[in-house]
């Protein structure tokens, strides 16, 4: 099962300058946001970013609110940035302002996966080297505390010129952080030129279902860009436990079969390893008969006490009665038991884990978490196919260097100076000699 995360970034430039916008007041904003609200609602986007919206501290969120969306905004003289989130609760990250770019960041969780979403705007008047340094430092701290990242922004760096020094610097920065830029079409056009300056940045390993550029929309001077991400539901791998089942164990039958084992066969074997194998085989066959192995896939739940298991049985019985009787009272009784046992399990689990964390050292703690199937699995990556054949690797290095020219004079020089007499050897010493050496050592203290 997968949840679709649709993220839209819109670089929205009004057709008015900042002075004209301030003179027009909120009326112009309301009209433009009405157009924006209609398009965004029809597109059913779950996250949308806006840039250069010219909001001031005196303008409330009500003037730019969207039904079903919650806004996170950061106002500024250069235009300001905002982020609309729909269908997900989020936390706005309180990050320091930067003179080189504008930004706003939120953190959401989708299918238990942490996403950090940010909207970034770099005004064209700012220094690119200073921006690279500030932006890289910010990303370096953000990527350490998130599983996925989505960065939407106008960077005013034209990637249609890939050999430009600033484009190369930007690409190099992304590569060093393990980030990719997924928009490949122009996002801003004039009568004489076009440029790709609006980006969507993701982790290099993030799978993308679709991304596109929406042209010919009257909402913005820049084209709208969006990305669709499939967010898989993390599946907890079953923790298989293998144990011997003593439920039907009978001590008398076990003792009789133990006495019936032909132990004398062991004495007829000459090899010690064969004797040990025979002994182990007799014992294992005996236990397999009386206490066979059983495999359980459910993880351990040591917090389920006998009282809780008893209430669980009452809940299951109440569920059967509610299905059979189909009365209001039976259903209410089942719901009461359901709510009670859910809260009780949560309390017992919290108390057990707190006790374990408080009274375990590091090694015991990780062992307990692994038994409870809480810690991450340690699946080791397989060797890539192109590196799996050692013969191919050897042939590559053998053929990588051209045939070197042999210097015969140099070869004769070294071969003529080979000595067969050892230059280092251990010799026996007497105790008096060792004592004399130790006594001759002078102390500086």
Describe the structure.
With 445 residues, the protein is α+β, with helices and mostly antiparallel strands. 40% of the residues lie in helices and 20% in strands. The chain has three domains: 2-232, Deoxyribonuclease I, Chain A (4-Layer Sandwich); 241-296, no CATH class; 306-371, no CATH class. The protein has helices at 18-24, 26-43, 128-142, 165-177, 251-260, 265-268, 272-290, 306-325, 328-358, 362-371, 390-400, 408-415, 431-440, and strands at residues 2-10, 47-51, 69-74, 81-86, 90-92, 102-110, 113-121, 148-154, 179-181, 188-189, 194-195, 198-203, 210-214, 224-232, 241-244, 293-296. A hairpin with a 4-residue loop joins strand 10 (188-189) and strand 11. The longest helix is centred in the C-terminal third of the chain and has 31 residues, at 328-358. The model is unreliable at 13-17 (pLDDT under 50).
């Amino acid at each position: 099962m997968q949840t679709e995360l649709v993220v839209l970034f819109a670089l929205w430039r009004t057709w008015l300058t900042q002075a004209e916008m301030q003179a027009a007041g909120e009326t112009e904003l309301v009209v433009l946001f009405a157009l924006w609200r209609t398009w965004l609602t029809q597109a059913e986007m779950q996250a949308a970013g806006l840039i250069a919206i010219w909001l001031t501290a005196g303008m409330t969120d009500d003037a730019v609110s969207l039904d079903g969306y919650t806004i996170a905004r950061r106002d500024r003289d250069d235009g300001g940035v905002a982020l609309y989130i729909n269908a997900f609760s989020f936390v706005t990250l309180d990050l320091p302002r930067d003179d080189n770019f504008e930004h706003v960041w939120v953190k959401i969780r989708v299918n238990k996966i942490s996403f950090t979403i940010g909207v970034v705007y770099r005004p064209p008047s700012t220094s690119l080297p200073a921006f690279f340094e500030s932006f890289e430092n910010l990303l370096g701290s953000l990527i350490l505390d998130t599983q996925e990242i989505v960065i939407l922004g106008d960077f005013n760096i034209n990637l249609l010129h890939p050999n430009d020094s600033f484009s190369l610097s930007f690409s190099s920065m992304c590569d060093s952080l393990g980030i990719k830029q997924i928009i490949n079409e122009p996002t801003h056009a004039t009568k004489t030129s076009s440029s790709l300056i609006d980006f969507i940045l993701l982790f290099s390993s993030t799978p993308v279902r679709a991304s596109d550029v929406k042209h010919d929309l009257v909402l913005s001077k820049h084209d709208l860009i969006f990305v669709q991400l499939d967010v898989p539901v993390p599946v907890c791998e079953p923790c298989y436990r293998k144990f011997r089942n003593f439920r039907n164990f009978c001590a008398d039958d076990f003792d009789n079969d133990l006495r019936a084992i032909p132990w004398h066969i062991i004495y007829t074997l000459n090899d010690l390893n064969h004797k040990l194998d025979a002994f182990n085989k007799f014992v294992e066959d005996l236990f397999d008969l009386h206490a066979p192995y059983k495999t359980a896939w459910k993880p351990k739940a040591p917090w389920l006490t006998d009282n809780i298991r008893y209430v669980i049985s009452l809940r299951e019985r109440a569920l059967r009665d509610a299905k059979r009787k189909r009365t209001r009272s039976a259903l209410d009784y089942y719901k009461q038991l359901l709510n009670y046992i859910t809260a009780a399990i949560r309390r017992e689990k919290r108390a057990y884990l707190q006790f374990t964390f408080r009274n375990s050292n590091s090694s015991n703690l990780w062992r307990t978490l692994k038994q409870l199937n809480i810690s991450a699995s340690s699946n080791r990556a397989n060797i890539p196919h192109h590196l799996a054949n050692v013969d191919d690797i050897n042939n590559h290095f053998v053929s990588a260097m051209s045939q070197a020219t042999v210097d015969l004079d140099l070869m004769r020089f070294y071969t003529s100076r080979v000595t067969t007499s050892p230059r280092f050897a251990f010799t026996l010493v007497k105790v008096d000699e060792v004592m004399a050496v130790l006594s001759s050592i002078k102390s500086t203290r």
